[in-house]
Amino acid sequence: MKKKILYLVFTFNFLFSLLTAILPLIVFSITNSSATSGYVMTVFMVSLLTVRFILFYKYVEPILLNKFGVISYCLGFLLLVFYYDQIIAFYIGSVFLGVGVGVVGPILLTMLTDASSDKKAVSYHNMLMALASATGPVLGVYMLNKLKENMYPILFAMGATMVIVSFLFGKGKVNEEKSESNELNLKAIILNKDYASNLLIFLISSINYGCIIAYLPILLDINDLRIDYFYLAFWICFVLAQIFVPRLGVKFKLPTLLYLFLFVLSVSIMLIGYAGSYWLLLPLGGIFGFGYGALMNVFYSIIAAVNEQRFKADAYSLFGIMSYVGVGIGAFLFSPLAEKSLSLIFVISGIITVVVLIAKYLVDFINIRKKVNGKEKEKCRVNEQ
């Protein structure tokens, strides 16, 4: 069963990364509008988030849920087989694909950890996800340039294999108590200051990635550069961040790392918009990938440090949702600007991150001063007595 799940992990993430790399290019070729790419991505993200929030409250048995998700995923590709040259098909298809991603993405890791007691199972999952995410855009750009007429049937066939594999699983156990506990945990997470403040920062930082997904492929295509090379550099350094950042966490405090990588993210995103050659694009892609991966690692480490153990799993899930929310906001927020200046989108996105960085620092500084003043006052009272 573990091998089947790992196949689904790789194929699902491969198709997802492939599609996100070339979707803006396809939409732009049909409509000749950069803004439309943002609108299609917004529909995709809204569909994804809707199903994720529903599942946060309503428990469904994982194997059954996985079947529903891969079927929806496959239907999105099937629609494009017949109507690949009509923009309405991409809006409708993005709903099917968004529902599929919203369901399948988180459920595969749950199925894998339930099916295997091997501690390396999560590592296998992460390595396959990174490999698929790095190689998917390469094949996507190749198919778009060389196999455009046959591209959609091939993608549908790959999706169909996921459906077949999903129906080879047996029945799982149903947990009726999950729905109620999730609702209580969601409220507790949102009301907890330790979670909520970092949740907001992660949301803002994910807007940068939303700009990358929705608008960078078009900008690079205009400059005769390839998005797949950018994603390759991005994902290689994203994986490296997962290796090296935990080591940095031993030497430096997590808030310090948070400031550092927010700064790295903001500077790199501003420069990416003006990368006119691979000599600049690839290093910036690597720096941005390392910064984004490092931030994700830091945020998850902050969650792990909070004492409420029973809320941690749902906090991880909610942080994952916020990454998608940020991507959706990034795609939609800058769509009016896309027709005027694609490069300016990345500059403004970086400026927003800088503002968040400064606000975060000021809030932390004020809180530290309050604690210091409180301790000094308490010390004075003790001395007076």
UniProtKB/TrEMBL annotation:
Domain Major facilitator superfamily (MFS) profile stretches: 189-385
Keywords tagged on the record: Membrane, Transmembrane, Transmembrane helix, Transport
GO molecular function, one term: transmembrane transporter activity
Subcellular location per the Swiss-Prot or TrEMBL entry: Cell membrane
Keyword presence, Isomerase: no
Superkingdom per UniProt: Bacteria
A GO CC term attached to the entry: plasma membrane
PROSITE patterns in UniProt: MFS
Transmembrane segments: 7-30, 36-57, 64-84, 90-112, 124-144, 150-169, 195-217, 229-245, 257-281, 287-306, 318-338, 344-363
Membrane topology qualifier: Multi-pass membrane protein
Protein name, entry field: MFS transporter
